[in-house]
Amino acid sequence: MRALPLADDYLRTLVAYHAWTGNRLLAAAERLSSDELNGGSLSHGSVFDTLLHILDVSYSWRLVAEGVNDSRWVWEVEPLEDLPSLRRFWEAEDERLLTFVDSLQPGDGDRIREKANWPGHPFRTWQVVAHIVNHQVEHGNEVGWRLTALGHSPGGLGFAGYLDAVYNQ
């Protein structure tokens, strides 16, 4: 696969969008009752369980992007037993991902990375970052629908909505 020329701020914009949508999801989830947060059946269980899955993928794949192969689940690294602890780690993880993307030099996005528990599937660094963002889009929309059904919509989560929010600050 040939290298993909990217604008300097492309990955940073995607990661900022990723943080924005995550914050909207968490803010809406904070308005749920304990039963609403921990009940239901989404692709990874409850709203809380699906948010935890999103965070685990963000954490583990960021490590892959950095060239670190650590196959531990995020909850093995940090106890995440409730929404406040999940939010604290999530916000710190967003900062770590943004710091990593900001540290990339020309050509770094094309470095080949492999995930320890997914051998034989090389990824370029930019593809790993895109996966982190797109994974949250996939499951974030699922959580968003559930939050909306429970009367606590996170509002629009689309990229164009993010750009509109940024431009209208």
* H/E element order: HHHHHEEHH
The fraction of residues in strands falls at: 5-15%
Kindly provide the radius of gyration, computed on alpha-carbon positions and rounded to a whole number of angstroms. 16 Å
Q: Helix coverage percent of residues?
A: 55-70%
Could you give a short account of the major beta sheet?
2 strands, antiparallel
Total domain units: 1
Separate helix tally: 7
* Average pLDDT, all residues: 92
Q: Give the CATH superfamily.
A: dinb family like domain
The name CATH uses for the topology is Four Helix Bundle (Hemerythrin (Met), subunit A)
Q: How are strands sequenced across the largest beta sheet?
A: 1-2
Name the overall outline: globular
Structural class: mainly alpha
Low-confidence stretches: none
Task: Identify the notable features of this structure and list them briefly.
7 helices, 7% strand, two-stranded antiparallel sheet, Four Helix Bundle (Hemerythrin (Met), subunit A), mainly alpha, 169 residues
Describe, in plain words, how this protein is organized in 3D.
The protein is mostly helical. The protein has a single domain, classed as Four Helix Bundle (Hemerythrin (Met), subunit A), CATH 1.20.120. Helices cover 61% and strands 7% of the residues. It has seven helices and two strands; from the N terminus they run αααααββαα. It has helices spanning 10-29, 34-38, 47-65, 74-77, 83-103, 125-149, 159-167; strands at residues 112-115, 118-124. A two-stranded antiparallel sheet has the order 1-2. A hairpin with a 2-residue loop joins strand 1 (112-115) and strand 2 (118-124). The longest helix has 25 residues, at 125-149. The termini are far apart. The model has no long low-confidence stretch (mean pLDDT 92).
